[in-house]
User: Fold these one by one.
Assistant:
Number 1:
Amino acid sequence: MKEICIDGQKIGNGASTYVIAEISANHNQDIQEAIDLVYLAKECGADAVKIQTYTPDTMTIDCSNEHFRIGEGTIWEGKNLYELYGEAYTPWEWTGRLLEEAKKAGITLFSSPFDITAVDCLEQHNMPAYKIASFELVDHPLIARIARTGKPVIMSTGMGSLREICEAVEVLEKNGCKEYALLKCTSSYPAPVDEANLARMKHMEEAFGVAVGLSDHTMGSTVPAIAVGLGAAIVEKHFTKSRDIEGPDSAFSMEPNEFSEMVKAVRIAEQAVGTVSYELTEKEKNSTVFRRSIFVVEDVAAGDLLTEENTRIIRPGYGLAPRYYDQVLGRKVNADVKRGTPLEWGILA
């Protein structure tokens, strides 16, 4: 598997799971709220915090006809796209300040740009990496521009067919991207657990030979922990101070205590996965004494034969291994042996 490195931290090939806190619109356009979320993300165990870089005008046009009104099936039903993005966007002039605060907090900050001008802006701040959102998977000119920065890229694949993912990966590689990872994502908000389809991660890992992970919109920690068990090298979750604070994304975001618990669950999951090994652990070595072995279970005198009556395979494991049982039956002993003696080769005549 190709690994990537963001801000000095390796991702993939057995490295610790890279946990991203997505601030999205949860700052409610208050820079202090955004700064607080950066520090909170660090306290909660995140490796990185992510923002989004767009404006209403870089996303869409100010138009009120039916094409620009959000239909049924989302938490934004009935809203006008331009108005929604006006509520949700992160002011571009915050970028430098947020990077400074992230550095002070000891956490990596990077962004999802949603058009080429956003990439140009972010490049002025020397972003350490870029995230391509699921909805931009089909925006090849944007993907090409991001690839040409030479920075590591994390690309979400929500709604993407295998062909669309292949095409996006081809654009990345043709434009010089050497380090990228792919995230499984279900692009509904919140996402039902039965639509998580985590099995696709392993297929993407095998198909593309890169680190894979999960951009998760389900509620709770269960799905991220399972994803790590299935090989996720990255976990991304939306992050808010409180879901009681109204905002475009708060309803499906994690609060700090929940995020901390998720990070703990992720770390436990990655410990449980471990590595392929058939060596005994130290704890297992202590348990081997409770295996079965061959014992003399009746007093026998020198010269007596060992039989099924005077020997048995029982616990504990101090005698010969059970695989030798047929070989010792019918053999004579060379000395008197008391009941409860573990059978050893030296006892046999």
Number 2:
Amino acid sequence: MGKVVLYSTVSVDGFIADPNDQVGPLFDWMSGGDVPLDDKGEVKVTQASYDYVRPYWDEIGVTVVGRHVFDLTKGWGGRPPSGIDHMVVVTHRPMPDDWDAAAPFHFVEGVEAAVEQARRLAGDRTVEVAAGDVGGQVLAAGLVDEVAMDVAPVVLGAGKRYFGSVDAQHLLEDPHVVIQGNRVLHLRYRVRTG
């Protein structure tokens, strides 16, 4: 089984979006370089960011998101972003009426069931869990192996928290990845067990 990684770009004060779901300058780092990160060449980062992010993206088999993110992105038009094979959407509601049931999106109720489904679909590849409320619930359930953050030098002041509404202490190991890019610091921490 692959590992489960909680991930997002985050402001230095811990937010992944403002109160209106706007990301503002959080993703400036994805246009701050000259190395194409995606196939279309729309995202350009520094070589240091590319050397970290591209292999990480390539190891992701499935991403778990909440219904709110799915609705905000309009389900990415039925195509998972960044070459990901499948998306698992945590929701209590059925898929949209006009949704193509053949799209590689799986609608699952509850974070435990979502991670179980994602692990089956991912096989030996990584299960990425989008930070926010669902990500915080997955962490609280003890299902996260690593926390990955792309920390942007931005203070949003308020908004959607990286760990959602987690209200208990969780210990992480010292970071095993620390990479400085342009307008970003890439960090990865293993979650302490026991």
